[in-house]
Amino acid sequence: MKTIKTMNKIAAIGLDELNKEAFEISDSAENPDGIMVRSASLHDMEFGDNLKAIVRCGAGVNNIPLDKCAEKGIIVFNTPGANANGVKELTIASLLLASRKIVDGIGWANGLTENVAKQVEKGKSAFAGNEIAGKTLGVIGLGAIGGLVANAAKSLGMKVLGCDNFLTVEAAWHLSRSINKASSYDEIYANADYITLHIPSNEKTRGMINKESIAKMKDGVKIINLSRADLVNNADIKEAIESGKVSCYVTDFPTEETINVPGIITTPHLGASTAESEDNCAVMAAHQIEDFLLNGNVKNSVNYPDVEMARTEGGRLLVLHKNLPNILSAITTRISDQGINIDHMANRSKGDYACTIVDTTSPLNDETVEKISQGENVIRVIKFD
After folding, report:
1. Which helix (DSSP H) or strand (DSSP E) does residue 373 occupy?
2. What is the dihedral of CA 281, 285, 286, 287, to 10 degrees?
3. Contact yes or no for 249/237 (Cβ under 8 A)
4. What is the rounded distance in angstroms from the CA atom of residue 4 to the CA atom of residue 2?
5. In this predicted model, what pLDDT tens digit does every residue of 320-347 receive, in sequence order?
């Protein structure tokens, strides 16, 4: 039986998907085969030798040390798209919050004490805003979330300009034909009345909304960031708010710098905080970690390439290795030396790493598995019965 450690409260509907005859679920396991996590930080955690997989019930993986895991042969998964609808709906709400001074108006109305109806009619003009229909929305990132946002905004009467330097064919199929594709972020900056960010945080995107990029935007632009806090330079956005260059900034990541600032609306990381999103993420995560630990199939990995192959009779190995020449030939040679045929094989690579699934006509003995493990640039070998 394999053990899965839960690092946060994982929705029961997801845990119930795991085969109870094959898995023991615990929040206190000392050396589990797999970890299911939401927001807990694993950067200072010591990983046992038995740990083979970590699955993040959500899209962002900044709470997991990806490079450390890759070097130890621990595959990290996430659940892209499982929370997309929840984030899409909050993005649409953010467009309206940025446009209608709703937050300010609620605060003012709650402070009224007498002659309320009269005061409302007298004071409501201070909270007038604008409609979003007919305005141009720039969507940066057209993946699972950004694509839904673009389509929803179009249905609400907005003009939509999208940009994604890594747009997949699958994502493109789900976009409305009426979404206009921008050739660069600069094209969005120059034309959008609203800009919403739906991209990961990495070396190329951190701080991308800064003094220089804001200067390229239309006066009075409204910016929405429900992706990651560090995509936006807080000092620069505050300066732009004060000058009026940016009329409103909505962020799902409050900090000491952004709370209680006029023109900045902060929500407490609510993007995926819906019962439906948590259930979807937990179910997707359970399916992925189960298929990996029982069959070696890799789907939605963030530090290794995806590779999947239907099981056949006989034995199966998953070899995690560096993406270098001659490793496959070394693997097949060691298997053939035992007099066993390879039935099927699948190999995929991504960056510095590669995954190889090998199905053999009969199970390999532990000695052969150990020889493969000792091969140069082989990180880990996992045997499946």
Report:
1. helix 366-373
2. 110
3. yes
4. 7
5. 999 999 999 999 999 998 888 999 999 9
